[in-house]
């Protein structure tokens, strides 16, 4: 099973406009269930579902139904039997290793702006530019702004024709067994202190204690923070939350 099919939950919101009522980077169709859904994520957030799918190279589409995000790797949908809203990924806007937030922009902190380009070009440029952590893309002007910092989610600016691309933390491909992981999230709860160890060591440390429910790993610090209880998860673009299954 590929690492992206582990499960990760991300950001927040419902919006209007674009290729579908909510998103620029998905097409929305009424459909029956289009096939086998290999991943179920507990959430009531459409955008949480959309960012998960955007980060998963095998994800072609998703449905949000009864508090669960269901993602699909193969599509065989039948619009004539449509009972659910199916969100189909628009590959023109897909950029590997980047999560996407439709119609939002992280204000300021521009490194460089580039005219008349595709999102994929901007993604490659960000990967090879020191300090780049993401970019904003204007789908009308076909212009992008590389960023060296992503502001807090509450400080994002609404841009109806923009997509905000956020690079995955560099450690996101590490998937310790026995944990579900949630990119760009940190745990809120009763913690057991921080230590500077690898993700694998952090996972073993948590597994060695029956009362450990999960841990947060901070990319910018290389720090591990185990938790005895998990009350909630909050956004942090330098963190990934691992919760025991």
Automatic annotation (TrEMBL):
<dbReference type="Pfam" id="PF00024">
    <property type="entry name" value="PAN_1"/>
</dbReference>
<feature type="signal peptide">
    <location>
        <begin position="1"/>
        <end position="20"/>
    </location>
</feature>
<dbReference type="InterPro" id="IPR003609">
    <property type="entry name" value="Pan_app"/>
</dbReference>
<feature type="domain" description="Apple">
    <location>
        <begin position="41"/>
        <end position="67"/>
    </location>
</feature>
<feature type="domain" description="Apple">
    <location>
        <begin position="107"/>
        <end position="147"/>
    </location>
</feature>
<protein>
    <submittedName>
        <fullName>DgyrCDS14420</fullName>
    </submittedName>
</protein>
<feature type="domain" description="Apple">
    <location>
        <begin position="183"/>
        <end position="232"/>
    </location>
</feature>
<dbReference type="Pfam" id="PF14295">
    <property type="entry name" value="PAN_4"/>
</dbReference>
<keyword id="KW-0732">Signal</keyword>
